[in-house]
């Protein structure tokens, strides 16, 4: 909103300083600061409101140290993250940008699913919350919406680098490096020099015209990633500060990738896929990062509030959509490695238990408890030490992800 206001003031009255709102870097920095202040300052008021309404977490005793003492801590704190993200984004981003529209839809959609789950747990006193099949249906629904919008919307295009022989000087004295904007189902493959994969080639066996079926694969991949990453974030939200801190590291890294992908100069220099208008996402992403860091003020040990599924499902959904939009989803197993390993630990634990129960009549476990962070709690590590070490691993994974820009 402010972008359009200052654009008008600049064009009509040459208002001093109004032109800075044209710069993504300025608006992104402002969004980060504003979201951090909203979550840190107004977060306390929201926590007090949740306490007043007795929106307390019901904790099952799993034999973990300090777990029972957390019973009654306000949950649904994901509302803080959502508000602190949306307010700066709506104020400072271009609201007609398709990528911003997608991220706003994702935030509201996943926030609603998580809110329903928390509402059932807290107010209906049903510890199971929203049935798993409804959660998955919601995640699939979002994946279909996002995949369809990214594939069919005319505002979503890429520009590919021209061969050196075709890179000619233009009348303005600048070399034409990229071709015309066009629709594509290509994505980035890490570690390869010619690092692009076209999803539509999955139907190349159909012969000429196979490209028109590329949307099937693209939407399927989108659904898979949205579901997997949102569930991974949900499972990671098990001890104070783990999900919010790990997510902030991932999100800040994605902000860098989004800015580079949307900047024709740096896209050329780093030889990454240039995606017109995608740089605008940086404003939303840094607002999201500020909201997560501000939330950590109250969520670090001992937590004054839990994000609940309202926050964790939203976090996972947003991260997945950003990665898909900037065609970096194949980097998520590295960048979001914490989420992936938490997911895998549960899958392995449950699968091995069922296999051994069928074979030996008694279920056996790989980990003392899943997800993985609970395994370390069972080994008597203090949760603060677990969280910080997971953050360190997350930072290493983020650095390695950034290095893949040149590691081919």
Alpha carbon gyration radius: 22 Å
**Mean pLDDT across all amino acids:** 90
Instruction: Identify low-pLDDT runs.
Output: none
The structural domain count equals: 1
What form results from the Cα inertia axes? Answer: globular
Order of helices and strands: HHHHHEEHHHHHHHHH
Helix fraction bin? 55-70%
Cross-sheet strand order for the largest sheet: 1-2
Q: Please report the total strand number as a whole number.
A: 2
Please indicate the percent range of residues in DSSP E strands (runs of 2 or more).
Answer: under 5%
- Report the biggest beta sheet as strand number plus sense, adding barrel if it closes: 2 strands, antiparallel
SS summary, helix count: 14
Quote the distance from N terminus to C terminus.
41 Å
**Which structural category fits the helices and strands?**
mainly alpha
Descriptive account of the structure:
There is one protein chain. Strand 1 (186-188) and strand 2 (196-198) form a beta hairpin. This protein has 408 residues and is mainly α. Helix 7 (242-261) packs parallel to helix 14. A two-stranded antiparallel sheet has the order 1-2. It has one domain. The chain is globular and about 70 Å long. The mean pLDDT is 90. The protein has helices at 2-13, 24-52, 78-92, 98-123, 132-152, 214-236, 242-261, 264-270, 281-299, 308-325, 332-335, 337-360, 372-378, 383-403, and strands at residues 186-188, 196-198.
């Amino acid at each position: 909103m402010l972008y359009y206001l200052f654009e008008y003031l600049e064009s009509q009255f040459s208002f001093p300083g109004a032109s800075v709102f044209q710069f993504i870097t300025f608006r992104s920095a402002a969004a980060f600061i504003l979201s951090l202040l909203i979550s840190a300052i107004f977060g306390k008021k929201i926590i007090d409101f949740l306490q007043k309404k007795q929106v307390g977490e019901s904790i099952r005793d799993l034999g973990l140290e300090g777990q029972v003492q957390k019973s009654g801590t306000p949950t649904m704190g994901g509302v803080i993250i959502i508000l602190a993200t949306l307010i700066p984004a709506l104020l400072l981003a271009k609201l007609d940008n398709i990528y911003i529209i997608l991220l706003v839809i994702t935030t509201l959609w996943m926030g609603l699913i998580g809110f329903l789950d928390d509402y059932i747990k807290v107010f209906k006193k049903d510890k199971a919350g929203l049935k798993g099949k409804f959660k998955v249906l919601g995640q699939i629904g979002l994946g279909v919406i996002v995949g369809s919008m990214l594939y069919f919307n005319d505002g979503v295009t890429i520009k590919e680098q021209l061969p050196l022989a075709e890179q000619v000087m233009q009348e303005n004295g600048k070399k034409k490096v990229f071709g015309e904007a066009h629709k594509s189902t290509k994505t980035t493959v890490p570690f390869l020099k010619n690092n692009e994969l076209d999803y539509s080639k999955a139907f190349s066996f159909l012969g000429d015209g196979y490209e028109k079926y590329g949307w099937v694969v693209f939407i399927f991949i989108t659904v898979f990633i949205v579901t997997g990453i949102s569930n991974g974030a949900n499972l990671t939200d098990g001890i104070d500060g783990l999900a919010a801190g790990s997510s902030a590291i991932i999100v800040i890294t994605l902000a860098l990738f989004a800015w580079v992908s949307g900047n024709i100069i740096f896209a050329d220099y780093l030889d990454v896929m240039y995606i017109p208008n995608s740089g605008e996402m940086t404003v939303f992403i840094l607002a999201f990062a500020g909201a997560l860091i501000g939330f950590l003020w109250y969520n670090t040990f001992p937590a004054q509030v839990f994000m609940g599924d309202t926050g964790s499902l939203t976090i996972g959904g947003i991260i997945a959509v950003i990665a898909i939009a900037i065609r970096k989803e194949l980097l998520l197993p590295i960048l979001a490695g914490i989420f992936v390993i938490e997911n895998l630990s549960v899958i392995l634990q449950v699968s091995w238990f069922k296999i051994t129960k069928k074979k030996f009549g008694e279920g056996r476990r790989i980990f003392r408890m899943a997800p993985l962070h609970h395994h370390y709690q069972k080994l008597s590590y203090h949760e603060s030490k677990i969280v910080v070490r997971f953050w360190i691993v997350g930072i290493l994974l983020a650095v390695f992800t950034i290095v893949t820009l040149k590691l081919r």
